[in-house]
């Protein structure tokens, strides 16, 4: 079978193989000239394309094992975030944070620096404490802070270039429950109070339609234990889908349609176990570019890019999503120079996006932003070197782990070979 990503914009003719055991995976890797791993296909860059084979570990045998001190758990790397967090909850445990969807494989989410929101919470890669990998020779290798430490540091955000992860040891915390509140607020008010808001709740984010003066504000706060919510999503999508289709038909209507959208009821409240509240159904296909801006200039940059869209009345159909993420020390993490404001720009999959993203990217880059590795960007090798002081050290570790480049593809070879 061939493969395509979630939005349908990235495709590969490489066969997708689904090993049931680690031994079978080792044989596949040993025999292949080129290998890439795939999860749920939520990357918008051609990270999973392969000139050889693609492997999916979703069906591989494995169990979750909780450490005696209950501070870490060893997890099959191919498990989805959904499967993982449900299993952790059965043990009375949880991840400290998640993103707003959960089909992604754990290994893929960590390999690309996927994140949620929270000023004191890092991306998912910061939770990793050790990896078991299948190397290019099909043999197993372990890495953590003490064993193969350089490999571990690179593997924390690996883009899949250092081997196929089969098990990951991850930090966990006691299970907790969240209260989610959705409300509509004036953009000017949220713009003025955002730094205050993020100190008052555990998680705060908002969505801003570029042609509207209101935002959809979402907050999550710790609450007492309670049953799972009846709804599996934060915002109902049916009306939005109809307006998107109208906008795709007549793009000049988009500013009016967005103002109409923001006149509808946006209030919502859910409570439940954290793993049931973090994710929401996202069924409308889109393309996405996300830039991690230095937090100090995040709101200013959002103002600039929205102002550009409004001046030109550009048909950007989806809202911007705005979140904050803590700093980390991971070599290739966009957060490794300080806390960031993550600005996600989306476009309806039925509408043109390349030229819009290219112009917006220039604004993000001018403000000192770094792109999310799995979202649309146009970085070249020189850009990687300018943005990441550890880039060449990262390449050295990659060459040592995979001398023949078995885990590369053309996109990654351009940046890291």
Describe how the helices and strands are arranged.
Blueprint: E1 3-4, E2 11-12, E3 16-17, H1 22-31, E4 35-38, E5 53-56, E6 65-66, E7 72-76, H2 81-90, E8 93-94, H3 106-111, E9 128-134, E10 140-144, H4 149-155, E11 164-171, E12 173-174, E13 177-186, H5 187-200, E14 203-208, E15 214-223, H6 238-249, H7 254-261, E16 268-273, H8 274-277, E17 286-294, H9 298-312, E18 320-325, E19 340-348, H10 354-366, E20 370-371, H11 381-387, H12 391-401, H13 410-416
Parallel strand pairs: 3-5, 4-5
Antiparallel strand pairs: 1-2, 6-7, 7-11, 8-12, 9-10, 9-11, 13-15, 13-16, 14-15, 14-18, 17-19, 17-20, 18-19
Helix pairs in contact: 6-7
**Helical content class:** 25-40%
Characterize the largest beta sheet: strand count, sense, and whether it forms a barrel.
8 strands, antiparallel
Distance between the termini: 28 Å
Number of helices: 13
The helix/strand class is alpha+beta
| Strand elements, count | 20
The unreliable regions are none
Mean pLDDT over all positions = 96
Strand order of the largest sheet: 16-13-15-14-18-19-17-20
Strand content: 15-25%
Structural shape: globular
Q: Oligomeric form of this entry?
A: single chain
Gyration radius from CA atoms, angstroms = 21 Å
């Amino acid at each position: 079978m061939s493969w395509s990503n979630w939005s349908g914009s990235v495709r590969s003719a490489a066969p997708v193989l689904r090993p049931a055991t680690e031994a079978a995976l080792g044989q596949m890797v040993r025999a292949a000239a080129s290998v890439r791993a795939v999860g749920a296909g939520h990357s918008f860059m051609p990270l999973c394309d392969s000139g050889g084979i693609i492997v999916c570990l979703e069906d591989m045998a494995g169990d979750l094992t909780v450490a005696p001190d209950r501070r870490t758990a060893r997890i099959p790397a191919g498990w989805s975030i959904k499967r993982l967090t449900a299993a952790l909850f059965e043990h009375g445990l949880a991840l400290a944070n998640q993103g707003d969807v959960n089909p992604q494989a754990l290994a893929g989410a960590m390999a690309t620096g996927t994140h949620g929101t929270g000023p004191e919470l890092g991306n998912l890669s910061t939770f990793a404490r050790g990896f078991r990998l299948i190397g290019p020779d099909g043999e197993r290798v372990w890495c953590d802070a003490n064993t193969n430490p350089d490999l571990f540091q690179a593997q924390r955000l690996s883009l899949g270039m250092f081997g196929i992860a089969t098990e990951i040891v991850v930090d966990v915390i006691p299970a907790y429950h969240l209260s989610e509140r959705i409300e509509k607020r004036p953009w000017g008010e949220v713009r003025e109070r955002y730094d205050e808001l993020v100190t008052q709740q555990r998680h705060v984010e908002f969505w801003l339609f570029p042609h509207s003066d209101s935002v959809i504000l979402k907050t999550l706060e710790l609450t007492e234990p309670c049953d799972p919510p009846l709804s599996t999503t934060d915002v109902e999508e049916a009306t939005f889908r109809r307006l998107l289709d109208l906008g795709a038909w007549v793009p000049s209507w988009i500013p009016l349609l967005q103002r109409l959208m923001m006149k509808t009821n946006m209030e919502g409240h859910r409570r439940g176990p954290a793993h049931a509240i973090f994710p929401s159904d996202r069924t409308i296909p889109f393309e996405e570019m996300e830039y991690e801006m230095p937090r100090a200039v995040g709101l200013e940059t959002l103002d600039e890019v929205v102002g550009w869209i409004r001046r030109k009345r550009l048909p950007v159909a989806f809202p911007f999503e705005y979140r904050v993420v803590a700093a980390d020390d991971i070599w290739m993490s966009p957060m490794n120079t300080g806390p960031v404001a993550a600005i996600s720009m989306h476009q309806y999959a039925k509408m043109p996006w390349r030229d819009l993203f290219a112009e917006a990217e220039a604004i993000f880059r001018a403000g000192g932003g770094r792109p999310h590795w799995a979202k649309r960007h146009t970085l070249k090798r020189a850009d990687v070197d300018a943005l990441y002081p550890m880039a060449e050290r990262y390449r050295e570790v990659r060459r040592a782990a995979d001398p023949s480049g078995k885990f590369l593809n053309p996109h990654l070879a351009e940046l890291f070979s």
